[in-house]
Amino acid sequence: xxxxxxxxKLESIEDPKLRDVFISFLEEAERIIGETVTRKEFQxxxxxTNENFNRVWKAINELTEAQKRTEQRVNELxxAQKRTExxxxxxxxxxxxxxxxxxxxxEAQKxTExxxxxxxEAQKRTEQRVNELxxAQKRTExxxxxxxxxxxxxxxxxKKLTQEHKKTREHLGGLTNAFGYVLEDRAIKGLPSILKxxxxxxxxxxxxxxxxxxxNREIEINIIGKGKxxxxxxxxxxxxxxxxxxxxxxxxxxxxxxxxxxxxGDKFLVxxxxxxxxxxxxxxxxxxxxxxxxxxxxLA
Length: 300
What we know:
The chain has about 300 residues and is of the alpha/beta class. The protein has a domain at about 185-295: 3-Layer(aba) Sandwich (Trna Endonuclease, Chain: A, domain 1), CATH 3.40.1350.10. It is about 70% helix and about 15% strand. It is built from 5 helices and 5 strands. It has a 5-stranded mixed beta sheet with strand order 1-2-3-4-5, sandwiched between helices. The longest helix is centred in the middle third of the chain and has 161 residues, at about 40-200. The radius of gyration is 71 Å and the shape is rod-shaped.
């Protein structure tokens, strides 16, 4: 009865190895008792054994509960370990990426240092060039100072030349006017006979030099007078130029256009000159201006 109760309890042990140990122990105990003790002693032994077994069983139950808690804790630790390993893997991957990034940064730093060295060399060359330019600038400033002094001297000389040139122009102007007036005077005296001989024009009264006030300014007419040809009367207007050019012809015509409002009627235009080209003579002829050379005029 006792043995059957113990066996039922032993069968409830989940660990097969532990269960076999207890059963073997119980069988060995029965064999030994059967050979050496009385029934009373056996019953006492069974009672004691049962008490001990109950204590052991309690301990086993406690150990089983502890084992369950341990296994639960182990499972929790396993899960935590798995999470830890996953985290470690993530950290390892992140570390790998970090190492790669560090390598890239190291390479970039190396290139930066190389670039800085290049810039340092360039800066050194620039400073050297700046020093050279500073020296050149100093020489330039010295040269400019020399040129400024020379310019000042040149300006003094130029001022003298300008004053002398002004005097020369005044002299030349006086000579030009003198030659012009001489040419005009010869034309005033000599033109009537030339006009009669060449153009069959008779002058009415003497030719003269005259000043007209036009648009609030006085304009000098070198030669002016009246003439008649085939019964037709007109105004003779002449201009004198030492050397006649095309622009002189155009200027004379513009001058005549201005006089039209003050001297109406037909006009006979004459230009007296020492010299001109064949092209200018042709141009003057096309524009109705008659050129007479100084050598055609009488000297007195």
